[in-house]
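Hi support team,

I'm filing this because I wasn't sure whether my run with adenosine-5'-triphosphate finished correctly. The job status page said complete, but I'd like someone to confirm that the output block is well-formed before I use it downstream. Pasting the exact inputs I used:
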Amino acid sequence: MTAPHATRTDADAALVVAGLHKRFGGTVAVDHLDLVVPRGSLTAMLGPSGCGKTTALRTIAGLLAPDAGSIAIDGRLVAGPGTFLPPERRRIGMVFQDYALFPHLSVARNVAYGLTGCSRSARRRRVAEVLDLVDLGGYGDRLPVALSGGQQQRVALARALAPEPGLVLLDEPFSNLDAALRATVREDVRAILRAAEATAVFVTHDQEEALSLADRVAVVHRGRIHQVADPQTLYTRPASRFVAEFVGEADVLPGTRADRFSVDTPLGRLGTTRALGSASGAVVVRPESLRLARDDAGSAVVTAIAYFGHDQLVQVRLADGRLLRARRGPAMDLRRGDRVEVSVEGPVVVFDDEPAPAPAVLAPA
Ligand SMILES: Nc1ncnc2c1ncn2[C@@H]1O[C@H](COP(=O)(O)OP(=O)(O)OP(=O)(O)O)[C@@H](O)[C@H]1O
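And here is everything the job wrote out:
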């Protein structure tokens, strides 16, 4: 099957993926996926395990052949009907989860590995340049084993950047680092990619990583992209209920349309960011928008508290038995069993109820 935009390219984009489809036997891993990545941007492909993000990345890299659709890198078709360029002809750099460094080669020789077609002196100059870029100037003679995880990650990035690729692809690049190191290495990687003015796409299942690192986040679910947006838009204006619940914490309440921009919910009448199209729908409440006021006559009860220092997550049970989470400041003094009045700050996001499937019409016997 050929996608409608199978040969589309876009002059301002570093990557244009159109109608990309990939199946393994009976499993559809990537389902007619479209993605445009502007030059110089850092895009995250975010989705739960098994949603197809790694398959999409490997297909973009040329490690897998698509069943349908097209891929253009820097305006050049690299995969599409009748076209398939192998990875080494796509002008891409790749950073894998396990860094994939050659253990028997020095750091400098690892970085030089992809630099073919230039003189020895030019190669030596470029290796020194990218090692400086990743702040490993004096480490060229070391073996990878003599480096920390974060430093190995930076060598892998230097190797990917050395040939000045049109696109850098990173597959779960931080998952092998322990939590303490991850935040600093993420920042380093972002700064290095910026300094190199590289365009990069990385896949992750970690929403915090995607939101804090990327300029744009593409949310993938069942092989398709639900929304591509900057992190703030994604969080405050999710395009689907899946995005709302997958990105950040969210509790969902039933709501019925009151007027154009308000709904009636178990928490009373709430303003909405958009008009509900159907008579009823799902109302997304973020824990940080929930206000709690201790009130002996309140209709809700505190059922659990997790204290984090910078804030606390308070679970409350509403009169109808529903449980909701509220994120409150560190000084709010609540105990389990306290009665509270619950209110919501700011407009809420709503989604129309899915239409019920049409009843099957049986043909007359
Ligand atoms: N080589 C393969 N052979 C058969 N099925 C595969 C293969 N690779 C992936 N799949 C299947 O395709 C689907 C998408 O897998 P993929 O690895 O792309 O997802 P993912 O979102 O990257 O998940 P994870 O974060 O767990 O790596 C899954 O159902 C997976 O089992």
